[in-house]
């Protein structure tokens, strides 16, 4: 891919979300499309529309943090405050649109409770609420009934927004565009007018990467740790700057496919069942799909091959020997080392002797590259120290976000309690 556009980055994001919950395929894009058309009719500037439609695409990011077994009928009700708060913090700290994060925070707060919404984001939050609900009803009802718009006008939705939507639907056929799928090309044509640098596209990929690590406190530093270990290993192996940058980029994104792995599997205490392990292994193929969708063909194979073994016993393709890129072999050693020294829900960090014994045994069984493993063992203490220093800031950031999450949840709980004690008459 020679030129990147906002469409390229956001198409890959939606693809990743579709892999998480195929039942809501295209939900983020549909909400973004509806919001774009309403904002456009209101005379919103292009720059603001770009940021707000991007925020709309990510509006349910927090739902993946609060993952649980649920039916679609429960989706919009389950952990509503939690997923709004988490989605807000995620957008604020890790997205390219931090100034619009409050729109995500308030997107489930209805019109009658607008006094709780920051006035600077009132219109945008209520528009997202309306766009989100229309898309959700469209996707979850076999014969969608939109009579609720009139019934909830002035209660859940701003009457001016409902009127604007009904007028836009008559003139532009918004619901028909959702039905026949033409909304997709229209929205992406709008996004294609915004070009991105490769580093900006990488920022979207990195955002998805953080969504995996930050789903679990035990895994919060994993991708940073693998990236740090890979970077130092490259230097110790004598790789040049270009090669090192390819490996570290692959390391940063190596587990991006885990966005599709249920949290209950990621955080399970104890060994995975055969069925759970099969689900876990799918993350490698998902990593390849997401990275190729982003246009990162050069690192997709490297990143997705970090579980391949030289003897052919690995996954997802069962590659052997020279079929496995050398960069993937570096990544494999870094990944295993990070997993062994890291704390998980089912284990504590392993001591040096046990870690080195495991790595050595895997190299002897022709599973890990012997040269890379030898270098890792020889410089073990240096690698561990470097990784710990690199991960310290990530954990500090996580704990800060966690503290802010708890503070905001208390605010939302206070609002909910006030609503129960003195409900607004309907």
From TrEMBL:
<protein>
    <submittedName>
        <fullName>HD domain-containing phosphohydrolase</fullName>
    </submittedName>
</protein>
<dbReference type="InterPro" id="IPR006675">
    <property type="entry name" value="HDIG_dom"/>
</dbReference>
<dbReference type="InterPro" id="IPR037522">
    <property type="entry name" value="HD_GYP_dom"/>
</dbReference>
<feature type="domain" description="HD-GYP">
    <location>
        <begin position="197"/>
        <end position="392"/>
    </location>
</feature>
<dbReference type="InterPro" id="IPR003607">
    <property type="entry name" value="HD/PDEase_dom"/>
</dbReference>
<dbReference type="Pfam" id="PF13487">
    <property type="entry name" value="HD_5"/>
</dbReference>
């Amino acid at each position: 891919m020679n030129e990147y556009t906002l469409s390229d980055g956001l198409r890959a994001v939606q693809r990743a979300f579709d892999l998480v919950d195929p039942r809501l395929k295209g939900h983020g894009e549909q909400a973004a499309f509806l919001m774009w058309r309403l904002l456009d009719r209101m005379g919103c500037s292009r720059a603001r529309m770009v940021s707000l439609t991007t925020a709309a695409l990510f509006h349910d990011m927090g739902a993946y943090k609060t993952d649980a077994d649920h039916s679609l009928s429960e989706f919009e009700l389950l952990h509503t405050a939690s997923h709004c708060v988490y989605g807000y913090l995620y957008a604020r700290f890790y997205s390219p649109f931090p100034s619009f994060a409050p729109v995500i925070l308030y997107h489930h707060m209805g019109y009658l409770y607008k006094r709780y919404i920051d006035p600077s984001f009132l219109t945008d939050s209520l528009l997202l609420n309306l766009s989100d609900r229309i898309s959700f009803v469209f996707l979850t009802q076999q014969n969608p009934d939109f009579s609720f718009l009139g019934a909830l006008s002035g209660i859940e939705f701003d009457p001016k927004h409902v009127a604007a939507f009904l007028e836009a639907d008559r003139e532009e056929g918004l619901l028909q565009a959702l039905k026949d799928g033409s909304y997709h090309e229209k929205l992406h044509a709008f996004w294609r007018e915004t070009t991105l640098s490769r580093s900006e596209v990488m920022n979207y990929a990195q955002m998805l990467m953080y969504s995996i690590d930050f789903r679990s406190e035990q895994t919060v530093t994993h991708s940073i740790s693998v990236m740090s270990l890979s970077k130092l290993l490259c230097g110790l192996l004598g790789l040049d700057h270009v090669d090192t940058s390819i490996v570290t980029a692959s390391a940063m994104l190596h587990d991006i496919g885990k966005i599709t792995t249920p949290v209950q599997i990621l955080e399970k205490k104890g060994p995975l069942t055969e069925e759970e392990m099969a689900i876990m292994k799918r993350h490698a193929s998902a990593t390849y799909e997401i990275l190729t969708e982003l246009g990162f063909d050069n690192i997709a194979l490297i990143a997705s091959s970090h579980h391949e073994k030289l003897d052919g016993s690995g996954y997802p393709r069962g590659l052997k020997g020279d079929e496995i890129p050398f960069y993937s072999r570096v990544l494999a050693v870094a990944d295993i080392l990070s997993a062994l020294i890291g704390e998980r829900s089912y284990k504590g960090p392993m001591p040096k002797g046990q870690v080195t014994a495991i790595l050595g045994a895997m190299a002897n069984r022709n599973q890990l590259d012997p040269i890379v493993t030898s270098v890792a063992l020889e410089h073990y203490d240096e690698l561990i120290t470097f990784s710990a220093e690199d991960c310290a800031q990530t954990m500090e950031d996580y704990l800060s976000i966690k503290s802010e999450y708890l503070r905001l949840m208390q605010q939302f709980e206070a609002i909910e309690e006030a609503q129960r004690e003195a409900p607004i008459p309907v």
